Amino acid sequence: MKKPPRRTAERILSTALGLFNRFGEPNVATTLIASDMGISPGNLFYHFPSKELLVNALFDAFEERMFHLLPAAADVKDLEHAWFFMHSVFELIWEHRFIYRDLNDLLSKNRHLESQVKEVLQRQRQAFEQLLKGLQANGLLAQTDTEHKSCATHMVVMLTWWLSYEYVQDPRHAMEDNNANRSALRGAQQVLGVLLPYLHAQPKAQLQSLIQVYA
């Protein structure tokens, strides 16, 4: 049985996401999106009267998926689960990487993102605090409440700017699809590496081993 054809609005979102991820949102005009799809600019504007509304729709979809994923941090009890959770977060970010690569530019001209990105960062920080407290409750690390908050903030900062760092290292290739797994692994490695000074000896060795294996 053939799958029903996707609606035009869904195709526009999918095409725009691919082009934004590859070339950067500032470098992709709506006329390019329409041309890539083989539709008229008028057809695209009927569904999304401005590029800002198109960006907002993509961001809202990303935000919904992120908010669905983050509560899993409260269930993390060991380092392997922490690694899997962090890798899942990075995979989701990679799927919407244009947001992170072009974050400063997007925030400077988009009021919707200006407020919503702050909410995403706050939810991520809260999730990471829960993850840290769960690891501590299971005897893997030792932190004060102040260190929980500071460490969670450092993790969010690393998470937010990792793709920018990757892009600077290799502007011509860093955002290509075939780099997805390597970028997610490197990002998870760096964020979880923030925990190393706080881990007890055995879990510290385990995390170092995980980093070596997956890296």
Q: Which residue ranges are poorly predicted, with pLDDT under 50 across at least 5 consecutive positions?
A: 1-5
Q: Please indicate the percent range of residues in DSSP E strands (runs of 2 or more).
A: under 5%
Mean pLDDT: 90
For the CA atoms, what is the radius of gyration?
19 Å
Question: What order do the helices and strands follow?
Answer: HHHHHHHHHHH
Polypeptide structure, described:
The protein is elongated. It has eleven helices and no strands. The model is unreliable at 1-5 (pLDDT under 50). Helix 4 packs parallel to helix 8. The protein starts with 7 loop residues before the first helix and ends with a helix. Helix content is 74%, strand content 0%. 29% of the residues are buried. The protein has 215 residues and is mainly alpha-helical. It has helices spanning 8-23, 30-37, 41-47, 51-69, 79-95, 97-101, 103-109, 111-137, 145-169, 180-193, 201-214.
